[in-house]
Amino acid sequence: MSRAKLKATATTSELLSGFAMVAMVELQINEPTNVPEWLFVMFAVCTTVLVAVHIFALMISTYLLPNIDAVSKMETPGGPTRALRDSPHERMRGFIELAWAFSTVLGLFLFLVEIAILCWVKFWDYSFAAATAATVIVIPVLIVFVAFAIHFYHSLVVQKCETSVQDIEQLETMKRELDTATVKVNMF
């Protein structure tokens, strides 16, 4: 699962940070322009944060993926379970989750915001209607995106809790069976 998350993170982050950089570099502003300076500042800040978030997620993926691939191919005494347990990615699970969240939640959210801001910057001098239309389209998409993200992560937490409860019940059952077997052995 960690490997799949890191691969998805790397791909998403590469694409979206590239698109954001191209949008900033290729944006052509007419001189003179009526676009307010605060809108340029918003665009610059959003683009910079978007790229930084995706580059950070990409960095984590780039550093950890080769280790996970190497561990998955290792043959160690104690089998693959021991190799996975000893792998550095297990100790770095928090960073994997952070990269996943940065890329798939924060990064995608910022990308949608970037689209709306870019439309305002691009169309300010030409058509308020076009900029407004883009914003009217992006806002519901952002709302659905946030609702899905909350639902998805809530479902993951519920599933993790249910799995943990089942694991604890299995351990308790194993303990009872061992206690019963110990009592029988002591009787003989």
TrEMBL record:
Compartment(s): Membrane
TM regions (residue ranges): 41-65, 98-123, 129-150
Keyword hit for Transmembrane: yes
Main location: membrane
GO cellular component terms given for this protein: membrane
Membrane-related topology note: Multi-pass membrane protein
Protein name: Calcium release-activated calcium channel protein 1
Organism of origin: Papilio xuthus
